[in-house]
Amino acid sequence: MPPLSIPCQDEINDLVWRASETFRAGQPSGSHLNHVLILLCLKFLADFAKEPDVIPRRPRVRWRLPHGSDFDRLAHPETKDLGERIDRVLRRIGPVNRPPSGPSLADVSFCDEDVLGEIHERELRLRRLVKDFQDLRLDFRPSRIGALDVIGNCHDDLLARATSIWGVAPSPYLSPEVSSLVLQLAATYRMKAADLPFLQRRIDELECELAMLRLEMREQFKELKK
């Protein structure tokens, strides 16, 4: 098994920024960044959930990931009313121990006509953004990103680029509530460098288990042929 391959944060930042600019599609500068970052967080959580047993420590704050929030399912071409579908997922997602009156990712709607346009335009833009986030280089499984703080770094990069290009806005490009939740999620799921040797060992163990399973299946096929 080769050493753990950590992706390049600069490449991730560039891909997310290009996706966000395509998604903006002529709308006012910066008004779309809350939606971009929240959808990126949903992609991160969906990828993380694919490897629930890889990380040795459990997050201090667990996040619910409801049924139907699989990113590939949301991106399916036959998915109807994508904005409403994302909103339904976000209403059920969030820190398990969040106070009932506290902020949530659902505070930003993906059916917001003022930011995303009317339903036909909104659906086209959302589908394009979801497709951009399916880029294989935006694979956030723990076994791939290691201790890289991809969400926190993307948050800071989006904000820095927006400020450098459009200047200081009368209101923040990212709402304080969204920033707070995104940074909380980033801190919760961030691995430490000390976790990496365990992570590599766990990957090696899984590889060995798969190899043994293949050998066992091969022997069973031989018996069946007899």
Please explain how this structure is put together.
By secondary structure, the chain is mainly α. Helices cover 58% and strands 2% of the residues. The model has no long low-confidence stretch (mean pLDDT 78). The longest helix is centred in the C-terminal third of the chain and has 31 residues, at 195-225. The chain folds into two domains: 9-191, Ferritin (Up-down Bundle); 193-226. The two termini are 34 Å apart. The radius of gyration is 20 Å and the shape is globular.
Give the SSE map.
Layout: H1 9-24, H2 33-48, E1 63-64, H3 71-74, H4 82-91, E2 94-95, H5 113-116, H6 119-133, H7 142-145, H8 150-166, H9 176-189, H10 195-225
Antiparallel strand pairs: 1-2
Helix pairs in contact: 1-6, 1-8, 2-8, 2-9, 8-9
How many helices does DSSP assign?
10
The CATH architecture classification of the largest domain is: Up-down Bundle
- Provide the number of structural domains: 2
Q: What fold name stands as the CATH topology of the largest domain?
A: Ferritin
- First-last Cα distance: 34 Å
SSE pattern: HHEHHEHHHHHH
- The count of β-strands is 2
In what range is the share of β-strand residues?
A: under 5%
SSE-based structural type: mainly alpha
Radius of gyration over all CA atoms, rounded: 20 Å
* CATH class identity of the largest domain: Mainly Alpha
